[in-house]
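#struct-help
A.M.: can someone run this one for me? Single chain, 293 residues.
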Amino acid sequence: MNICSIQLYIYILNPYSTANVFPYFSQSFYILSSKNMSQFSLPSLPSHVKYISSVPDLISINPFTSSIIIRSSSLYSSYYYDFHIKAIDSHLPSLSSSVPVRIFFGINQHSPHLLINSTRQTLEVLSSNFLYQIKAYDPDILLNDQTNLFPPSIEYEIDTLTNIEIERFTGRIFLKDFNKTKFNFTLIMTDFGQPNRLTTRKILTFDIKDDGNIPISFLLISAFALILIILLSIALVLINCCCINHKNSLKTHQKTTWKNISPTTPDTRLIDNEYVRLFHWRKKKFLRWNFLL
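D.P.: on it. Structure tokens below:
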């Protein structure tokens, strides 16, 4: 009879242990140039975590200094090159995370351009504060390679305007003031080319289309104010009715208490400026004894 044995390795994941945390990068992407790459090094990692390049034959990571090493001289003839760096640990199961990296080898020659070369737009405000997305590209980079969000090819900024704001790397514009119908602003677009970053400034105008719709927030505030006014009116009416009823009851009580009472009658007496009816118990007692006799 043959006996078979199997060795099983069971890994129990403790979600509260720091050893089970994914390795992470402090930045969403890295953009370097062939000139400053020699001074660049990745953040230091614990002993159980290491860096791995997605193209180790072309670009590798020094395991001791965490610096980037170019292994293929053919990369220097290209304008830029994109790859990923992965941080992976040695635990079971192995956890990892990656970050995109772009290295510029060529000289930056062209400034950014708008994908839709229109400086005036007529827009309709949606229910949210999102208004529009600016799309620009760097002519030095292939247009197909600029569809990926990271690494970004353009950095966006708005010059001294507080009524709208723009996301730095996506170009998405959001409204802060819904009451305005026209926005004039200066858009600043900067590329990431090296050694000099080039900037383009465009004056844009946004005309907000008035479709006659009232913002939902305004409707909610108006409804709340109307309900509050109605409740206050009802409360005032109730308080007024209670006061009138209370006054009427006091008058009725006073009339009933002092009816047919005169200050000259013998069964009343002035006490503290008020006439009080007296109870003649002696007289009643005498009459009762006479009746019995």
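A.M.: thanks! The longest strand covers residues 199-209.
D.P.: also worth noting: The mean pLDDT is 76.
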